[in-house]
Amino acid sequence: MSTKTSARNQRRNAVNNVMLTLTAVCAFLTVSTLFLILSYLVYNGGKSVSLDFFTKLPLAPGQEGGGMANAILGSAVIILLASVIGLPIGFFAGIYLAEFSPKKLGFVIRYTADLLNGIPSIVIGIVAWTVIVKPLHQFSALAGGFALSLMLIPITARGTEQFLLEVPRTMREGALALGAPMWLTVASVIVPAARKGIMTSMILGVARISGETAPLLFTALGNNFWSTSLNQPTASLPVMIFTHATAPYEDWHRQAWAAGLVLLGLVLIANITARAIVSRGASLPK
Amino acid sequence: MATHAAIVRPTIKTKSRLGGDELAKAFTFLFAALIIALTLLVVWQLWLGSTPTREKFGFTFLTSQLWNPVTDEFGALPFIYGTVLTSLLALLISVPLGVGAAIYLSELALPKLSNSLTFLVELLAAVPSVIFGLLAIFTLVPLMRDYVQPGLKQAFGFSPLFTGPAFGVGYLTAGIILAVMTFPFIISVSREALMAVPREQREAALALGATKWESTWQIVVPFARLGIMGSVFLGLARALGETMAVTMVIGNDPKIHASLISPGYTIAAVVANEFTEASGQMHASALVELGLVLFALTMVINGLAQVMIVLTTGKGSAKA
Q1: Reported ipTM
Q2: pTM
Q3: Which CATH topology does A53-277 take?
Q4: What is the least distance, in Å, from the CA of B221 to any CA of chain A?
Q5: What is d(CA A272, CA A204) in angstroms, rounded to the nearest whole number?
Q6: Regarding the domain delimited by B54-313, which CATH topology (the fold level of the hierarchy) does it fall under?
Q7: pLDDT band at B318, cuts 50/70/90?
């Protein structure tokens, strides 16, 4: 009898050890993919990044050399456009959700924001095309900026809302008790108290849209030269990576690796900075 | 004191302050309402843009396998099939890995280790899709072509799932890259659901003599099952709508193949590849309608995910 139970217990302990080890293996396996990606990109991209990459225009296929200066500037312009449109809208919508919204309406808007956030980026691209490119008969940086702003608005709104709600009740009540009206409390106490978190969520949002490719494919399109107006097809780093990686030219692949390294570097730096700003232990918006 | 102040204070001032609040509320409401307006704009534009094919094909658009822009015949089935198949393959890999990792992070790892690993997982979620595609083209595709696919053919060649030439690209390759892209979501949401399980549940199980694994697998995981399911649905929604990485490795063949190693096509990939050169009104309309189908598919999955996550962790759109 006792040998039977101890045999059973031995099996239970063995299962325990095996399964717990397996979960650890899962965790380290998943995390290691990040290092795999990083090291491979640094290895291949590092060989290809040069000063030319940042200062020269792309060359015709077959020619060695050239760079992606126009795509770097183009990405900056498109992201700036998206931020100018998306960040204020998201910010004020977030304030409404956190401070002024009635319960039911707040739920509806919150749910819609999550819905908008969940729309596949390629679908956002289609809509930006039908709204801006089609009527104007012109691919443009403007259309690309509009598409990316559609993705930035819900992220900013939900992030702003979350960090406003994390401001302690007592600070709100203190300001109100001193006789300040609600709008003044929000503007001079609550928003300043939450500014780090709000900035974090804005940086994360901008970092997220800066890597987006699908919404730009048929809005900003691409360009092998400098774009001189917002109403022209405009090159961007993500689209360049796509077109160069899928083209059959050796030297273009080299350029794609360089662009990949630069893009991922920027995105990761933005992410790490954003998370460093926010104090430890604060949860980030999902 | 309060009543005294109320008497002394001129009423006009109170009124103007009330006005400020009303103004602030109305002002910020405009922006919040814009979110609803923009979402409606998306739906309306998709509906409007797909009118020609919706009227011509009706529901046969969803069931036809023919995709021929030259003769203006369009059917979405090969793309729906490819989208669903690649996403399911992705989940097959990422769910066990992701849930296992989440269990380790919430139940076993010390808080410091757990937090730093979670931070790394969240960084992985921030890697742009096109970067995954870039890596997949130059590393995963050759690996699949030279080793994995021939190996699978040799071992399981008798089944129709693993037949045909090994191109490297195809459903399985896309599924693998989608798995890597979805498990960050599964890990971080599942971990939160597991961490929301009350301590007493674990202690009660352990006090009854259960091993750590028994307490985790039979008590904690079932307790958090809705949240874990929610994370899986969230991952699924992401996989269904994923464009760039899949476009770069799917193989671009608008037919239905039983073989997992054969090239295929997904909704997002065909829109990405054909939209700029859509030859005519019908072709463009068919692609917009594919967008509408993808939109509907991800909205349903996302909606389900939200509900499940709210029910277990109390986070999501119901509560802020």
Answers
A1: 0.91
A2: 0.91
A3: MetI-like fold (1.10.3720)
A4: 13
A5: 9
A6: MetI-like fold (1.10.3720)
A7: very low
